[in-house]
């Protein structure tokens, strides 16, 4: 039961496809395998698992990241519905600094995304009642959390739908300064 891993254009961002084995009862699939994914996640150990429930199509969450000692790998999986996941490379030394990718995560495709430290993450909900599961390699510490405004002109993220729900906090996130040099990891 091999996971299929696809390195995306931003170094360290990997799409993981889990084959689904179906029969009359339903299906079985593996969502994570340390042996297969340890090459993509340094010092592989998860500290927290989170669940994101999203009622309304068009909802946007993010873009968030954790800093310094709390920088983390995230494995993000859509376990119900469909979302457009967006990852922005904020790493100062990265060849893809300030580049972004968007990947459709959906329960039907049984795919997930590995997001490395130094990348900001956000998503837009494409179907009502979509849910995400997150695996985190660091504890959540609000004092070490950073964020980028979802409409930062420097990033020009093309959100596919008009935004229906967004938190006050996310609306208040800053745009990147013009002379932003990136995060040092
Ligand atoms: C992230 C997080 C939040 N919380 C508390 C803090 C708030 O009281 C409440 C909701 O938090 P927030 O509005 O930050 O949740 P999201 O906007 O979904 O944040 C997430 O969405 C973006 C797209 C991500 O990539 C991160 O996983 C995460 O930042 O849960 C916790 O207790 N632990 C946590 O790990």
UniProtKB/TrEMBL annotation:
GO BP: dTDP-rhamnose biosynthetic process; polysaccharide biosynthetic process
Catalytically driven reaction(s): dTDP-4-dehydro-6-deoxy-alpha-D-glucose = dTDP-4-dehydro-beta-L-rhamnose
Any one annotated GO CC term: cytosol
Site (Participates in a stacking interaction with the thymidine ring of dTDP-4-oxo-6-deoxyglucose): 140
MF GO annotations: dTDP-4-dehydrorhamnose 3,5-epimerase activity
Active site annotation, chain numbering: 64, 134
EC number: 5.1.3.13
InterPro entries on file: RmlC-like (IPR000888), RmlC-like_jellyroll (IPR014710), RmlC_Cupin_sf (IPR011051)
Function (record text): Catalyzes the epimerization of the C3' and C5'positions of dTDP-6-deoxy-D-xylo-4-hexulose, forming dTDP-6-deoxy-L-lyxo-4-hexulose.
Protein name: dTDP-4-dehydrorhamnose 3,5-epimerase
